[in-house]
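Appendix B. Raw example, untouched.
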Amino acid sequence: MGITDDATMLFSARRLDFGALFETIEELDIGEPVLRDVILKSVIPINQDNTIEILLIDTHEDYTRGVKHVAESPNFEDTALQDSEQDSDLYGLTWRTLLGETAVWTNKFYYRNSDKVSSEGEAYPDLVPAETPASDYPVREDIITITEGETELGWRSDFETVNQWGLFSAGVRITQIELDYSTVLDGDWNRYIYDEDDFRPDPEQYYIVLTPESIDSTMNQKETSYVGYVDQVFEFGDWDFGTGLRFERDGFADESFASPRFNVNWQPSKTVRYFATAGLFHQSPRYLELAANESNDLKTEKITHASVGFKYFPSSNWSLLSEAYYQNLDDLVVDLDRTSGTYANIGDGTSYGIDFVLNGAIYEGLYASATYSYNDAVIDRKDGRGDVAAEFSREHVATLGLIWEISDRWKVAGRYKYLSGRPDDEFIIHSNVLGPGQPLRYSKEITERNVGRKSGSGSLNLRVDYRRAFGPIDVTAFLDVINVTAASSSDDTEFDYRRGIEVVDDSEAEPLIGLRLDYAW
């Protein structure tokens, strides 16, 4: 068995340093992020029936925000000192085998590793005279440090074949994940945004205090999860019916369950297809929520889903997809108390909406897309307040995009996106909460969560690509301009506890110049 001459390999490397960019656009208070990624992908045909794919990904992210950035913050609105570093690697091998004329067996083996350390501190420029240089600001560094270590080893095997009824598929997935999480708080830390039911030893204390006793936590745990599934599609002329069952064992939730899935398709002509789906889905607990407190014994969230829709082809160049859906949400994870990092599966709710997607070619080389989504999602957190809008839900989202492939070398793209506002909070501002003789501090006590809506916003992004090939190397130079119109959003607000006001983030257009190298042989 030898390697044929059709083997291909793709190598891509990219490094982005945003420090100089933020200086150019005079956003000196943001900080200094640095991103790097290296991707190696190879497809190797072994023989007529067997192909191997190799994927290697290495990424690095580094972000620093120090006192020099605090000094550039208007009115010292943001005094946070931040430092984070993350290294992530993924190594994957896929072996695809043809079995006869109608069957395919695919095996994927992978290893993933991620290490992230992030810390946050605080500067106090208001405690020194205005002319004090930034290097002399009083600071408290690394107040809270969070470590997130993840190692995952996995195998996925999928079998698919055509039989007398239609298409049959089955498979198994086995993953072993090891988590090494920790949160360390270096002394008590006053926080000035809180819910009215967050713990305070005295109801007249209008702020909360995080303490090492309630915040410090560690999680060192290794669990294995299993998935097995079978699906059969039955074909009858213009109709096909799909039914399947998924068996799962979630190690971290310590749960086993079976989830049925159903779908039906009807295509009476080449121009239209109708479909419907239904099924039960489970969402594993989030690792950070599991690790936030040793008492967080979290289970999976359950989603019962049903949808109907159609896809219409008015011409060979255009398609319109529409789908309406309804979801029943059970055992949702909700936060109980900011001062202790406790969570529980006590929430429930519903979500329903409709999506439209239009794609097409205006003419050769000029392509357009448009989407619109409406969603109504409500959650009952079982805190006595009843149904409220889901935390990050938006009722309306619409996009319009154009891509113009001017030539083999030049490509221009633009995308406009409109977002209706996220849910808003009702709150009370308290003044001088630390009392006489202490620095002036305000606090924000949230009395109602997710009531009403913030105002909507729109943004326009543009991109220009120039591509040249030099032998086996493809070089792509690109210019991205994010938020061309410098539109601001009411979602981007922060509470300034030194002045007791909500500050709207003044957005700016953000140009990004980059170079990408792809090597194939």
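End of appendix B.
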